[in-house]
Write a structure and sequence with these properties.
Blueprint: E1 4-7, E2 10-12, E3 25-26, E4 30-35, H1 40-48, E5 52-57, E6 60-64, H2 71-79, E7 84-89, E8 92-93, H3 108-112, H4 115-119, E9 128-133, E10 151-152, H5 166-175, E11 192-197, E12 204-206, H6 207-219, E13 224-227, E14 229-230, H7 236-246, E15 251-255, E16 276-281, E17 299-302, E18 306-310, E19 314-319, H8 325-338, H9 344-353, H10 374-383, E20 414-416, E21 421-423, H11 425-433, H12 436-440, E22 448-451, E23 457-462, E24 467-470, E25 480-482, H13 485-492, E26 510-512, E27 517-519, H14 523-529, H15 542-549, E28 557-562, E29 565-571, E30 576-579, E31 585-587, H16 590-594
Parallel strand pairs: 9-11, 9-13, 10-11, 13-15, 15-16, 16-17
Antiparallel strand pairs: 1-12, 1-14, 2-19, 3-8, 4-6, 4-7, 5-6, 18-19, 20-21, 22-23, 23-24, 24-25, 26-27, 28-29, 29-30, 30-31
Helix pairs in contact: 5-8, 6-7, 8-9, 8-10, 9-10
Length: 597
């Protein structure tokens, strides 16, 4: 009996309102500083050779730095001055493009995935996207003029009208006209939908119809195919059709399925390595209880209460992975608009390296590479020069896990049998020059690509106590940036250090006005003995210690760092100091804790 495919989605009534998303901030070369003492303004001006300084508030100044001074160096010099309460770039903000579509406030997912800011860059071009589904209502006011003539592979006719609603809902999320005063806004306003009706009005689809649809769409100009359908049975015939499309440069994006509670078996065609498999997240950015998961998952996107189009000039909300997949499809079309020269494999790579990592660092079976971020994707596309995840694309090595142990290398990299990981190149030199094992611990991952602190893809490596980001554009020692491990782990634990009790100044201790915390013995001596090396002088300066550990975020306090281990700790932006019963001060294994080891 031929395999059948069940559509992954459930339509429900339109409800819920959400606020518009915040504007994206972009840095400039000017800085805003606040001083504890107005007299410090003179010292600051001399130390930084400030070109212009304007009082803009209570002890708050706008300063202009000398031309060519890197922000990161200016930041260190400013923080090295006593009495600086804060110093931040004079960020430039822009009005965010919010379309005038009446139901835009119901489209909560757009803010989550960064669509508003992405539209400031592009709203899409005439990329042909095939929607293989129950058909599409071409007369819908939000789709009118952007639906091409398609095919009905069930009857062999050109009648692609939608007698279920599912296909129209999917098409609307991809390409509904934005800023037209009607209904909703799709992700790619300029896209063209190629409707291919392969599913009956009951939402069931035979393999033969889906296979014919994939091949026909490939042969008729589709650059992307959205498959919001699936089933548990793998079929070599279906995979042949998927390969037929991908070998001809077509990007296939498929829903992971809604059967997690019914056994969570792999869903095909999403589970084929040639496709981008998309799961669904909810309002809190957590994977939903219905969304299928597994090693084949590539990305996740919102899939609950998604406002979209329905046949008959109507609208509703939809829930299911069927409606997460079109967000990724629309984002892929925006990437293709920005970079029409990219292959489908390159577009796939752009989407995964620009995703916001969720769950354990790197790819995992719950979130894949992470949750879709449309803004990151179009920004990454502008500078993309090749996939850092493998050769030539993530498809070549879909099961790669940078945290799995590796064999000892033969290329001279340092190998640590304790963790089964290697260390080489710039990361090795930095590790050795700035403290080695006592400061950073053993490596617990290989190098891999992740979204960095600036929202862009970057090469990283995790250690027992830290995480390195590779920034070759910066002068040493800033060519490697250290993550805010203390801050990150506190946030992961749901602890807001802004609410911690403040020590204030304490006699004999080092005081940090920025956080109103003091650093006292024995932690003070440890702080003063360690730091990054960048001034070439013996010992460690305040700036070198600050660069390694960051500001203190808490007072010393008693905590159970792991079951049965109770110590006195003090949290810092990039570390956690621990006073153990033997009197030794050690650094907490924040890298291990952050990745759940």
């Amino acid at each position: 009996m031929p395999a059948r495919f069940a559509l992954c989605g459930l339509l429900i009534l339109l409800i819920s309102l959400v606020p518009a998303p915040p504007a994206q901030a972009a840095p400039t070369t000017d800085w805003i500083i606040k001083l504890a003492d107005a007299q410090q303004a003179v010292t600051l001006s001399q130390r930084l050779r400030i070109q212009h300084m304007t009082l803009i508030g209570d002890q708050t100044y706008l300063i202009r730095l000398p031309a060519g001074m890197p922000d990161i160096i200016a930041d260190e010099r400013i923080r090295n001055l006593a009495g600086v309460i804060y110093a931040v770039p004079d960020y430039e903000r822009a009005i965010t493009r919010t379309p005038n579509d009446p139901f835009i406030q119901q489209q909560w997912a757009l803010g989550t995935i960064g669509a508003y800011d992405a539209w400031n860059i592009t709203t899409g071009g005439p990329i042909i996207v095939a929607v293989i589904d129950t058909g599409v209502d071409a007369s819908h006011p939000d789709l009118s003029g952007r639906v091409l003539s398609g095919l009905n592979t069930i009857t062999g006719s050109t009648n692609t009208s939608d007698d279920n609603g599912h296909g129209t809902a999917v098409a609307g999320l991809i390409a509904a006209a934005g800023d037209n005063g009607t209904g909703i806004a799709g992700i790619c306003w300029g896209c063209q939908i190629l409707p291919v009706k392969a599913c009956f009005n009951n939402g069931r689809c035979r393999d033969s119809s889906v296979i014919s649809a994939i091949r026909w769409a490939t042969d008729n100009g589709a650059r992307i195919i959205n498959l919001s359908l699936g089933g548990a049975m793998s079929s070599p015939a279906l995979q042949d059709a998927v390969r037929y499309a991908t070998e001809r440069g077509v990007l296939i994006i498929a829903a992971s399925g809604n059967e997690r509670a019914e056994g969570n078996v792999p869903n095909y065609p999403a589970a084929y390595p040639e496709t981008i498999a998309v799961g669904a997240t909810g309002y809190s950015d957590e994977v939903t209880g219905f969304s299928n998961t597994g090693d084949y998952l590539d990305l996740v996107a919102p899939g609950i209460d998604i406002a979209t189009t329905l046949p008959g000039n109507s609208y509703a909300t939809a829930t299911g992975t069927s409606f997460a997949s079109p967000f990724v499809t629309g984002a892929a079309a925006l990437v293709m608009t920005i970079r029409p020269d990219l292959s489908s494999n390159d577009v796939r790579c752009v989407l995964v390296i620009s995703a916001e990592d969720r769950g354990p660092p790197g790819r995992d079976g719950e979130y894949g590479y992470g949750r879709l971020n449309v803004l990151n994707a179009v920004q990454t596309a502008t500078t993309y020069g090749g996939c850092p995840l493998g050769t030539p694309t993530p498809v070549a090595n879909p099961g790669f896990d940078p945290f799995n142990r590796v064999d000892p290398p033969s290329d001279g990299r340092l190998f640590f049998p304790e963790t089964g990981h290697t260390l080489g190149g710039g990361f090795r030199a930095y590790w050795e020059q700035n403290g080695g094992l006592p400061i950073f611990g053993f490596p617990i991952s290989e190098e891999f690509t992740e979204i960095g602190s600036d929202g862009r893809p970057v090469t990283v490596q995790y250690f027992e106590r830290h995480r390195f980001e590779w920034r070759p554009e910066n002068p040493p020692p800033y060519h490697v940036l250290l993550s805010r491990m203390g801050d990150d782990l506190l946030r992961r634990q749901g602890r807001d250090w802004y609410t911690f009790e403040r020590s204030g100044p304490i006699a004999g201790c080092l005081y940090f006005a920025e956080t109103n915390q003091a650093l006292c013995e024995p932690f003070l001596s440890y702080w003063q003995r360690n730091g990054l090396e960048f001034d070439g002088r013996p010992g460690k300066s305040y700036a070198e210690s600050l660069a390694l550990f960051g500001l203190p975020l808490s007072k010393p306090q008693i905590e159970e760092t792991r079951p049965g281990t109770v110590v006195i700790v003090q949290w810092f932006e990039r570390a956690r100091f621990e006073l153990h019963p033997d009197g030794k001060v050690l650094l907490g294994l924040l890298g291990n804790e952050l990745v759940g080891r």
